[in-house]
Structures
1.
Amino acid sequence: MSAKDLSFRHYDVTDGLSENTVNCISQDHRGFMWFGTNNGLNRFDGTSFKVYNFLSDNVIKSLYPDKERLWIGTGKALYFLDFNTDSIISPKILPFNDLCYNDTGAIIDIVKCGDRIFLLDAAGRILSPDTCIMKHPSILSSQHWHTIASLNDRYILGISTEGMSVINPTEATIVSHMSKTHTDIPMDLFYADSMAVVTYGNDKRTECFMITSDYRIKPTYEMLYPAADIAGSHNNSILLGTNGQGIYSTYGTKCFNTANSNLSGNVVTSIFTDRDGNLWVGTYRDGINFHSPVFRWFDRYTIDNGVLSHKLATAIMKDGPILYIGTDGGGLDIYNIEKRRLTNLNTGNSDIIGDDILSMIQDGGDILMISYTKGISRFSPLTGKFVNYPLKNALLWCLSKDPDGKIWALGKDISVFDQATGAIKALEHDVTASCIGFSKQEAWVATSGHGIYVYHRRSFKQLRHILQGQDIRTFFIDSHGNKWIGIKNRGLSILSDLDSIMTFGPDNGFTASNVVSIQEDTRCFLWIATDNGLFRYNPTNRHFRRFGEYDGLPATFLSNSSHKTDSILYFGSNQGVVKVNSSYINFNNISTPVVIDKISFSGSDTTIVLPDSNMSVELPSNLNSPILHFSHPAFISPENIRYDYTLEGYGNQWHKIGPDHKISLPNLPYGNYTLRIRFRDSNGNYNKNISSVSIYIVPPWWRSRWGVTMCAILLSLAIYLLYRTSLHFKNIKKKAREEERKNAFEHAIEIKTPITDIVSTDKKLMDRVLDAIDRNLSNAGYSVDELSMEAGISRTNLFKKIQSLTGMTPAALIRSIRLKKASRLLIESKLNISEISDAVGFGNIKYFNKYFKEEYGMTPSRYRAEHCQDIP
């Protein structure tokens, strides 16, 4: 096991961890990781930390999860985190023995035996929820217990002041015992595979004991390990955490520390292996270290590890144990993988044609390479000599050999290189060729800005010119004959037989804009190097999986810098070479379902924590825009997992939300819904575990049965009141009109005949006359003829009747009533003089002023001014 075998990913306070000293680590039944620190409890799902720091004592010493709760031992007492309510509770509200929370002090260890939990407190007592083991009389009743560990479903191991014991906790008896030979106080007890490991710290050597099938304790004197504080296991190896020397592994007796690995700190405080075989290491003040077997998928060749002399790896070729790496500015690097020896050849120490080596191919036993501005150079590994073919004004960046052995040289022109003469023959000028691929009889040359030229390989005759005007940076033909192209800033596309293209983008999981190189592994997976990491394409389910910074890879790769040897792929980047062990790369299907944590609401501070079971919630009508937040334990590549949801009762179709961990459901109508969440793992396959929550939006009170009834009653009452009010106002208006007509006769007209006589003789006629004038008051063209027709009397008789009753002609009567109405409007309204003139039927304001002055002895303006002063 080398230092590389334990490479780590790091998490600390900058990632959301509450504190960088990690005292204990555990994993619950849902897959979440839990970390106890010197400043609170942390839950981790692979993406973010959730911190619980509201305990009275935030120093977490021990953790143990069961299906209902997380047992939390602090420096002062015992607490629980209830998974259903996601809240910290005290054991005092549970039916536990008083010894479990009265004067318990720090909880040192928490273990499970069978269906019961057992605790070790700072007083040296072994406690359980319903009994205190050491309160029972026994030959060891006076012992002070230092540490305990779970042995199996029946027994636990314990170390006391007297030695090590196998304990039956149910019967509170000692099954077997081995007395101590020294007085050192143990710091940790770890048991795995019949082996008990006891650490003492303080430069005291770690002890190992075998537990036999009949539960006897036997020392293993041949297995002596260095001093350590804590112990754990990983991949059949015992790991010891030391106080300043990192991690000691019993497999190969290796030590991993900050000097020979990327371990974040040398003071190790906790070690834990999760259910998927991943290793978690807590440190003192240096956060968490995470190691997974998948970290062996990739190797890096860089300046730092002595493989390269220059960071820009622009060309790669492997021949046996020798890796040839062309650099942009540093010449040719030759690295012997077996001997771990680097040789650099450049223009200063060899006859190489140039230091900017952009492409290499193997030609027989030699290696052909090109220099961007100088030409082509042939290198013999046997002699170490170069033969150069200088090319005047050459601008070359790609060499490729077709199945017939012809060598194509690409650059500013499309050319063919003659190995015998060292000359090149240009097939097309000034097209900026970028790369080339070969089918059965054809050569496909991609260019930057001129599309693809298709040539007959043997005759060099141009057959087609397609995708003209396109800036194509990458071209690759896979083992199935599919033609893949990378167009500048347009991601990855596949070319059909009809010369049309289908582009892959974020909806397919491909999130890069520019493709720089493509290779195919032995399982027919495509590996695509881009400006946004490295992607693997699964042709079976058409799924892309990204590898990047999270996997220890650079984000930016270089054009046409790649090489394939069996199942090993090499890609050049701006930070050296990436080696891909493609045959190792297999993703375990994630079996843990999504956990829906809580619901928040748009425009509200309200938050509802969802229980771990019985996932249903009832929401009032004013909280009908829920935002559901969920977590999903996934630690290898959480950024590659994609989530979908469907809302049954509201369309039922599946919606893609990518890697986001929240779902917004704005403005839901009242009713019943079921939200379901599914996910695609890193293999691109949908997992069968679908999480769901039932949501009931309560209708507003006015949409409930009693609300509808009440609204119907109120609506009927409102209609009735409206009708009565309308009728009342109609009567008021009617009386007002009658009063106005009466006033018009009494005050505005010289009436020869008394009103009583008019009423008694011609009331009906005068009502018709006055009503007709009132309806047409604003009509400036209203005539006596129209009045006689509406009154139902001839013009002559109308003239005689009105003359006899009022002493006026019908025309004068109409004008008098208009002037009366105008006088009222001048006092009661805010209309100007012109508007009032139009309102009472005077088409010309000049005539209105003339007749008004004749009637009232003053102009309308003066009339308004004098009468408005009298109004309080």
Note: The two ends are 106 Å apart (CA to CA).
2.
Amino acid sequence: MNKSIWQQFKPHVIAIGIFLIISIFFCLPAFKGMVLNQSDTLGWKGMIEQSNVYKEKYGHWPLWSNYSYSGIPAYQIGIEAKYNITLAWLHNVFTLWLPAPASFFFLACVGFYILALAMRLRSMPSIFGSLAYAFASYNAIIAAVGHNTKLMSMGYAPALLAGLLLLSQRKYILGFIVTLIFSTLLTWQNHLQILYYTFIIAACFGVGMLIKAFKEKDFKPVLYTAGLAIVSLLLGIFSYAVILLPTNSYAKESMRGGRSELTVSPDGKKITENKTKGGLDKSYAFHWSYGVSETMTLTMPAFNGGSDGPRELPEDGKALQALQESQLPQEFANYIYPALSSYWGAQPGTSGTVYLGAIVCLLFVTGIFVVKSWHKGWIIAASIIGIVLAWGSNFSAVNYFLFDHLPYYNKFRAPTTALVIPQLTFALLAAMTLQSLFFTEWDKAVLMKRLKLAGIGVAVVLAILVGTYFTGSFKASGDTQLREGISGAITQMASQGGQPNEQVLQQARTISSSIMNGLSADRKTLYESDLLRTLLFYVLAAALIWVGITKKLKGEYVLAAFILLNLVDLLPVDRRYLKDDNYVDQADFLAPLAANAADLQIKQDTGYYRVYDQTAGNPFADSRASYHHNSIGGYLPARLSTYDDLITHQLHKQNMAVFNMLNTKYFIGVNRQTNQPIAQMNPGALGAVWFVKGLQYEPNADAEMKALDNFSPADTAILDQREKSKVAFEPQYDSLATIRMTRNINDEVSYESNAASNQFAVFSEVYYPNGWKAFIDGKETPIAKVNYTLRGLPIPAGKHNIEFKFEPESYHTGNLITLITGIISILLVLGGAVMLWRNRNNQDPSTAVRA
């Protein structure tokens, strides 16, 4: 092997080896055949099952699924292009075919390392930043719950930014190739919120580059960079048109598109607040907003406690001690304890704290004063933007305005996700700080002056942390309600159903207060423990900086110590949320989806019907029933807006008429004697299709929904008056008229009808305008939306064959665009690689094309 080539690649091979080893050991159970017990992944498996069965039979996935929410576009669960000619096949190369979640952490390391190299950082600062980015606590948290596409998107985001950096350095061929490859890979993960945040960082970079161009009066590189970046980004986006176009079409009809026309809430009140045109309601979108002071968790994990539940509370804590001293029955104490939470921040709940690392934050603050690069400005700006966006409703003056006016921003929920921006930028500036401190020539006096300023910044952070320890309440907004709940439960238990006396009431109040006071004390103990560890890491990091700048140790040794110390800081916090206990055998993971006695009982009925599983907690946020049956529930955050309205206004109040029109033939409940699931048949289910006696027109969506409160779906179909043009004639009752379903294979549904007079048929299938077409004897007929969410057709007298076909134009157009873009992208990458190779071997540098 050519020695010079090996010397050139040796540090990168070592870096990849480090990433691989740490990812493997951190996720060791995954290499023993175990899988993470991810709730979100389990929910997805329940939703995707029918598509998998369909694919085994027909060789491709369906475009429509019957298993969830009475029918939804299947491409919201899983989809594939007809022709998989795409750069996205490189995904396995960048993850080395590692099992999840090791592949997620490894990919994040590699993606950031590419960015750091593009920033012209040395290998060791790049390794530090890569590990800091990959093992920030948020990655461990979302890996534990199953946000897999988000993690993979976060892995590719820094690599895409690396392509933009290379373009700005006039390495146009290489920059174009890198941007094209990683924009394609990022888009193919189908997590548009992370893609959106990546574009925000890119926009900050673009503004920074433009400011630099103004100062230097040299705009040519900006124009070249912008032009090539736009082309490569568009190619990356177009390569995923097969899902982006159908998703865009679906979004207009979904909760994210603000499709609902209702102006009255289920309790009859006028809806006047938090409505957003063409997007999510603010109350829903901003539900998880990071507290302003909660931002301090970036540098101290327990600033607002930890996650929901008591798992991070001390095992010998005051709350548990108060429970034990209360002399409550053990069974009752076991019931109360899980309700106690170490978290006391602004969110309604959380799976864990977003921690970037004490050392990373110290280096970020230091970098503000010591890094000498034009990149510093846009990095700091992006960091501030990400933090402000994460505050959500806690900084509504800014964020509500952005939600209403920033293009497409109102499609996303959970503002806390925006903290992925500072997760990237903090690690990047921290790595740049290490390079600046230990591999840059400094005037000693200038350096000490800047470090003093950095020290003041760090001191301010520490003052906030220490001050909060002495002044914080360590109480959550829901603690009062929890105290009252515990008191009420104790009172009910002690009075045994009778009227409680004052002594019982006082005892319940005393015990509940003791427990809650103990909980506050435990939270303070948790805070104290993390405060001390943060102070320790600050001191150790400061000591390493001093050792480095005074040349007590070589820069490489100091960098190695920083890398090791940072891992000692981050990995234990990650282990709070991603432990070996999170892994289970594959069979145990799928066990919650296993068929129970009720499922087996229902499956004996081979007809067409739907199921309502009342044992699942919230049937509309659980996919267990969808794994086995056509369900009226499911697990999908972005439901069709009309169906979500139906859930909120009718199904939640158990309107049997609506259950019947959805063909809900079986209800799964719990047998009180055996405490086991049992199936109960609903004789009122109306079947797949039926003729109604008459039509009832309503002036608007509110009136149409209100009419569902009290109607007979077997006799009457309710329509918005805007649907009247789709009804060619009024039905004439014929007691002998028949209509039946003859076939249903997801994307194609067939019926036969026979009637002596004109009829109107209601189909127990969800109305979706973007793809479904109806044909009577081969002639297309417009589909009417009836009963707020179902399909209806006027059927003329006589015998007829009726067909519904799901043929969304967006999917077929997207497929063609994906194919063409994939071919173009592959040719461009191959052509660019050839040009790079030729330039590399060109003996006359003056004639070489810039790479």
Note: Confidence is low (pLDDT under 50) at residues 843-851.
3.
Amino acid sequence: MIAIIKREIASFFSSPVGYLVIGVFLLVNGLFLWVFDGPFNILYAGFADLASLFQLSPWILVFLIPAVSMRSFSEEKRSGTLELLLTKPISTSGLVLAKYLGIILLLLISLLPTFLYLLSLESLKIDTDLLDYGSIFGSYLGLFFLMAAFASIGVLASSLTSNQIVAFLFGVIGCFGGYFGIQGLAESIGSGAGLLNDLGMQWRYEDLGRGVIDLKHLLYFLAFILLFLTATEMALVRGRKQIQPKRFIRPAGLFVALVAVSFILPSKRFDLTADKRYSLNEATVKLLEKAEAPVNVTVFLEGEFPSEFRKLQAETKQLLQGFKSVNRRVTFEFVNVLEDEENPEQVQQQLANMGILPARATVRQGGQTNQVLVYPWALANYQDKTVAVPLLKNQLGTAMEERVLNSIQNLEYAFADGFSKVIEPKKRKVAVLKGNGQLDDAYIADFFRSLRDYYFIAEFTLDSVATNPSGTLSKLNEFDLLVSAKPTQRFNTAEKYILDQYQMQGGKSLWLVDAITMETDSLQLTGEYLATPKDLNLTDFFFKYGVRINPNVVQDVYSAPLVLATGDGQESQYERYPWFYTPLTASGREHPITTNIEAVKFQYASGIDTLDNGIDKTILLSSSPLSALRGVPNLIRLEEIEGFLKTVGEGPDPARYNAGEVPMAVLLEGEFSSVFKNRQKPYSYSGHKDEGVASKMVVVSDGDLIKNELQGNRPLELGYDRLTGNFYGNKEFLLNTVNYLLDDSGLINIRSKEIALAFLDQQKITRDATQWQALNILLPLTLLGLIGFGYRWSRRRKYAR
């Protein structure tokens, strides 16, 4: 067998055709990956990986492998040497295997020069980033199995004819049909083609090609190779003598066993990526297992768009495939929502009515750049319920590559969150506290409308405390969470006692509280406003639990602008000015609530002190290091804009902005002690607890953080600033907060998942693009030449003796 393998390699390299075939393979790869402006160009991808190589390779291998394998048996038949080979002391199956292994070795030799691309990526990536060699290894492993499967097709094609050209055409047709044809047929059939799609190799290769090794995929490829090698043996035997069925019972049985195992056994996946980005969270797995009906996902990421969105598309497809491996009821398709539409404006309006808005992206075509609309959204349908899943995070001041990275990091949570809305019935209850001057319904409408997708929402007042305190507490205990949005009226002792005992009995609460009285509308009307302390009679309440909201106001150099009108009448214009009283903050702390969220906008927030009392405290949001604190009473004037402009232009004075990171939102977790422990109670309650059970509370020092703007009488989306057009992260922060306080499934913890992608250094590419293009085309060809020269030299030296 070894002699035949050596003979196969020698036959290939002794002819210029062999070098030509491999040279064309390397040249085409180099041109498409490094030179041609298109979807496979690595330099324009922005990410330092070889995903483009593994996406392009199947197209090239469909032609390369038949070209390499077409000689294996067809040439033997044409020259009459096949009969001579069959008289050798080797079985027909051994002959087939030897020819096959010879082709595999030739293909590995042709693949060897592509490792030079890794050296280019190491040089072109940002210095602090690391290449994901685990993913790359998995991708090369997937490419090897694809090449092995194509080689088995090529060997069979060569055994069917004595004409090399016919063998090449048969091989191309077989490889193309096996890889693209089956999945294409399944997609054309649509629903009901799940089994047909599973028989195809394309999705399995794509799975392996991203560094996810699934034993089912390996068994599938082994079964595929065994089938075609057995068919090759049958084709050779048929030409010489009558086929004996017994000879093929064992390989046929092995083939059936491998196929059965690959379909029946549960998926066993090994995620080789460095950040384990394709390993599903246990909470996601449990959620998917609850789906007892089909979960149909339609993703709008299809069509021509920039490389960043292709990356998002690929990661989304891989994630959905992971979902499908957990529950076969998950199906998905990618569509171009605007393709073949006679009235795209109408479609865009319909999507906008569903809250699905496009993103603008820049596409390079023929050296020109064009703006296109991309809909990075998905629709998930389960039974009679449908939910929109946003795939792209909206983040201010970040490049598209970074937005896509953050979006990929958030993908699993985005889908799991969407699935939970349609798969799991609502069971938790949220009380919206009223009666103490909290915000009117119109100003909290958007947040609670969104929250209604997860929980039951109802208003709750403490009006009956005076007449029926025990009954009031009993009704409040029916709720799992209490939300108090910007109270403006004092809480009396009886009301505080109800709230305290609710917390002691395991109730969760979210407090958005102003420690000062300050209104922007009044400031803009008069040009000044006297900020004064606001006494809600809650100081001892929060102090006992471990926090104190100070009567001051935070100034932060990193802040949202204040928009003011200048000019009169029709000539008036809106101008943005720095306004340090509206801090923007996105915590760098790794917590499920704040990980990967957009900057949250505060207005006239106060600093929060944390006290040591045994309760676990997590500062969720704080100001930037360039902050200052102003006590109240204090007259705040619009004239301060002049000083803020100077600070922005000349840089902040460290002596003035020296308060550091001031906490403005704090999470408290643990077993709280009652505010009324060792104190006189306002009324007798038989169920009183001095020490509470485990509970949670979040305190935010800005009541307006939950407040949405109005356009006429219509509430706008929370976090949207209609004067600047910016979207802030207030809504996401509050939704994450409520989900964290109430989540017992662990879904919110998915947000802590971190994904690290290596980026290309665009400065290096701009400066040295031509150099790297030349190197990645010429060096692989040079290496091929050296391999050929070394082979010929060794043979010449061997036979010269």
Note: The mean pLDDT is 86.
